[in-house]
Each structure stands twice: as C-alpha cells, then as structure tokens.
Design brief:
single chain, 122 residues, mainly alpha, 2 domains, two-stranded parallel sheet, 2 strands
C-alpha cells in the first residue's frame, strides 16, 4: 500500500488514517507519529482500530521510518533523474523491492518489539 501526497497536512493525514483503517479493519493498528501539528489537528478523527503512539518531541531517532528513509536515500545519493516522474518510478521500485524481513531488520527497534510482545500477552 503506497500513499502519495504533494504535501502534508491534517486533511492528508486523515485520508491516510481512513484508508489504512479500511485496509486493516480486523486488527488494532498502532501508528507511530511525531508531534507534527497535522498529527494532532483538532479536526482529526482517529478511526477506532487505530491508536496513535506519539514519540517524544525532537527525537527522530526513535522513529523507525527514519532508518527506512536512510536506506532509500543511500540508493538515491548520487542518482539524477530528468523528471520528477522518473524519480518517483525509481522510489516505487525501491519500495517494491523491500521484503517484510528487510523492513523488520531496519525498523525493528527493541522498544517497539518489546511493546508489541507485551500487547500480545493482554
């Protein structure tokens, strides 16, 4: 599942949450978020099967997505693309090449794995 937005605001985040909720309706989904305004907008309605887990302010190192972005950027470091569409196609290819074990190796921080393990015991 890939979402592409030209910008980030509460409306975009709401759309993401709604579509994510519909894609995984039978599970409780934990979405880690930083403290961006769009993650906490007053008009934001978090679906019942989603829990937002906010990381402490100014701690991007706690966000597993940062490691995934580092991985993608390493492949793009010296690449040039004549058009934005070609860059997007290349990024899509990189994302499609990721496997669940590969993503887990990049993002499976112990504190996240421990929290998930604790949730499984409830």
């Amino acid at each position: 599942m890939t979402y592409l937005f030209s910008h980030v605001d509460t409306v975009c985040f709401q759309r993401f949450l709604d579509e994510f909720s519909q894609a995984y309706p039978d599970s409780l989904n934990i979405v880690q978020a930083d403290n961006g305004r769009f993650h906490k907008g007053k008009e934001l309605v978090v679906p019942q099967n989603i829990v937002l887990l906010f990381q402490p302010p100014y701690c991007p190192e706690l966000n597993p997505m940062e490691r995934l972005w580092e991985h993608l950027k390493a492949d793009l470091k010296w690449a040039t693309f004549p058009t934005l569409a070609q860059l997007q196609t290349h990024v899509d290819q990189l994302l499609n090449e990721l496997t669940p074990p590969g993503v887990a190796s990049l993002t499976g921080y112990p504190f996240i794995l421990n929290a998930l393990s604790a949730l499984n015991t409830l």
